[in-house]
Amino acid sequence: MYPERARAEAGELLFGNIDSYLLWNLTGGPDGGLHATDATNASRTQLMNLDTLAWDADMLDALKVPAAMMPAIRSSSEYFADLKTTGLAGIPICGLLGDQHAALVGQTCFRPGELKNTYGTGCFLLMNTGTSKVESAAGLLTTLAYRLGKQAPVYALEGSIAVTGSLVQWLRDNLGLIAKSDDIEALARTVEDNGGVYFVPAFSGLYAPYWKDSARGVIAGLTRYVTKAHLARAVLEATAFQTRDVVSAMEADSGIPLLQLRTDGGMVVNDLLMQIQANTLNCPVVRPKMRETTALGAAYAAGLGCGFYKDTDDLAQHWSVDRTWVPDIDPGERDRQYRR
User: Fold this and answer.
1) For a tag on the chain, would you pick the N or C end, based on fewer CB atoms within 10 A?
2) 161-207 confidence digits (pLDDT tens)
3) Chain CA centroid to CA 46, Å
4) What b-and-e string marks burial along 245-282, b requiring 16 or more CB atoms within 10 Å of the CB?
5) Model pTM?
């Protein structure tokens, strides 16, 4: 046996995600630091049982991970410990959330069927499915959304898209059609439509709901009429079409029709993309005033944990809308574009 394994089995080595590492160090590290995580971060290891919210003994055994080194699994919103670092000693830590889970909380998606999409280099959609776990039959992931205090855990359906914002970067860096990413909106607005061009950006395969790692990128519909402006518009539409793929899968799994999409992330500053998204989904698309919803969700969880906020209704009153886009496209044209 390797000496490191003996130390791990004795509890002398610790395992955790970055949240556990930060929590341990902020609360004393080797000098009595708290070794814990929350249920959302624990779920990302694929070692937590989604039903019991405890480490799964069978998974630990299969992967030969000693249980003694695992952090305690706690709620996403509760008192953990006080900070012990210089200048901050005594401040309570009351919230831990994973990235996309925090964005869901930051968007105050607390009711079943409420859905957010984070537009970054890729897209990450989470739909609240309530306290009942929905097993996907449409190519999505079933995950834990959050657990607030002693309340029942809330679950979600999740769909990830590999290439969205990074496609804009590709247009800039590989083809040189724009000087900076923000230029794509102005370029795409110089044309009325995509000129018949469609882009499937499967640079590293397709994620949800297809899961085809052998897929590769395709640009279809090229003619001599097509300009770089049509390509720019097709790039934006690719994000909207891929999002519709995931939303349709979520509606099929949950049985809940989408009434509104809440958006966040770097790409939401693109007003044209948001309008295209509303047209493609045939529902309102909402951009909140506070776009850094991941940080906001972590703050909301901490505020609940220390009693600064009363409940989720209190949080919902603090969430505010910057702008809403509604569909303005003929239904027949919407279906034709998506079909193509």
Assistant:
1) N
2) 999 999 999 999 999 999 999 999 999 999 999 999 999 999 999 99
3) 17
4) bbbbbbbebbebebebbbbbbebbebebbbbbbbbbbe
5) 0.93
